[in-house]
Amino acid sequence: MVLVSLVLGLSYLVMQSRRSLRTNAEIDRARVYAELGIYHALHFTAVEPNWRQLLPSGIWLQDVTVDQATYSVSGIDPVDGNLANNQVDPVDLICTAAVNGAQHTLQVQAQNAPSELLKYALAAGGLIDINNHARIEGDVFTNSNIDKSGGDTWVFGDAEAVGSIHETANITGEITPGAAAKNFPDDQVLVNYYLNHATPIPFINQIQEVLISPISNPLGPINPEGLYIINCTSQKIVIRNCRIVGTLVLVNPKSDSEIKDAINWQPALADYPALVVVDGAVKIQPNMDLDENNLKVDFNLPGEDGQGENYQTFPNLIFGPIYCRGNLELGNSVNVQGPVISTGFLVLKDYAKVTIVPNYYHHPPKYYRETYLAPIRGTWK
Questions:
Q1: Whether residue 187 is found in the same domain as residue 96
Q2: Which CA distances in Å does 67 have to 70, 99, 117, 320?
Q3: Does one domain contain both 314 and 352?
Q4: pLDDT tens digits, 296-355
Q5: Cα distances (Å, whole numbers) of residue 282 to 100, 135, 245, 343, 346
Q6: Which residues, other chains included, contact 328 with Cβ-Cβ below 8 Å and sequence gap of 6+?
Q7: What residues make up the domain containing 86?
């Protein structure tokens, strides 16, 4: 009787073990199909740019059958339940898959992917012209051609062009003519955001020797985000000998408009660009440090060392992304750290230097994003 009991008990344990292994295997398969369902939903956002207008905040896919599995996917706007009213609201993607009665549910939060152009030091829709001691520390891309000239002109990175690349000497990375075209950020959405949130500054032909910041604007009311807009109405504007801790939006500047002499510039907020140019062209060509003693101007923010005195020197530097809906020229020893993006042609010359800041791709400025969704790292559950 003891022996029979042991044999029966062992047989039961073997059956339970087999059943458990079979159930665990089906649960594992269900998990694979749940992940497949989420990537199915992500793929739709990549092939349909208007997915926010077409899909509800709710069920996206229902009872999709693949092999022996079925899955359903929901996309939920966790901010306000409306996918269409904000192009950058995140989306909670939830997929439940079933295989032979075993179920698994996966969830991840996704957001519009950062613009691919933020990976490049220079990116343009038109011709990129690099000459006369210009130096680029990072990759370069254009939907047109790259015209590089001079043995003293360097690209420390890759060069990609949908068209041709003229002169490849001193390009240290891969050289790719005939590259695939890339999309620019949704131009209208990006520009509208900055237009609608900026504080207007009345147009004057020359802005000089001032500090513009979230708490300082000698030209008008302050903006707590340091975001200001100037409508140039097709007139020339000159910005010189200034410190800017904020973002300027220049609308319709005349093609000979200039940013020159001594300039020290950075956004007030990490997720803002330094400069947005809308429907115009600008020459950015500062060539000296900003010396308070020479100009007899205090450029310090409250609480900074030297505030109230005139002995500080700020380096010739523009730190932060530049975006131009139009044509852009950088020259005369300008030093830019952060991607420079122009929808038109882009000229870099006369000892100008542009250095990529990789952090802007991982933490992009507002609305510098693609139309498709990508999972946010660390949100799978």
A1: no
A2: 8, 9, 39, 50
A3: yes
A4: 999 999 888 777 778 899 999 999 999 999 999 999 999 999 999 999 999 999 999 999
A5: 64, 20, 19, 13, 10
A6: 277, 281, 282, 284, 322, 340, 342, 344, 345, 346, 347
A7: 23-112
DSSP letter string, 213-238: BTTB-TTS---TT-EEEEE-TT---E
The residue to which tokens 């059943």 are assigned: 19
Last residue of a domain, one of 88, 112, 136: 112
Both tokens of residue 22? 């079979």
Q: Which of 89, 112, 135 lies at the terminal end of a domain, its last residue?
A: 112
Amino acid (1-letter code) at residue 241:
N
Same structural domain, 152 and 32? no
Structure tokens at 38: 């989420």
Considering the domain architecture, whether residues 231 and 309 belong to the same structural domain is answered as yes
For 32-72, how does the pLDDT look when each residue is reduced to its tens digit (9 = 90+)? 999 999 999 999 999 999 999 999 999 999 999 998 899 99
Are 225 and 251 in contact by the 8 Å Cβ rule? The answer is no
Please answer whether residues 143 and 162 qualify as being in contact, where contact means their C-beta atoms are separated by less than 8 angstroms: yes
Per-residue CA distances from 292 to 209, 270, 323 (Å): 9, 26, 29
- pTM of the entire structure? 0.86
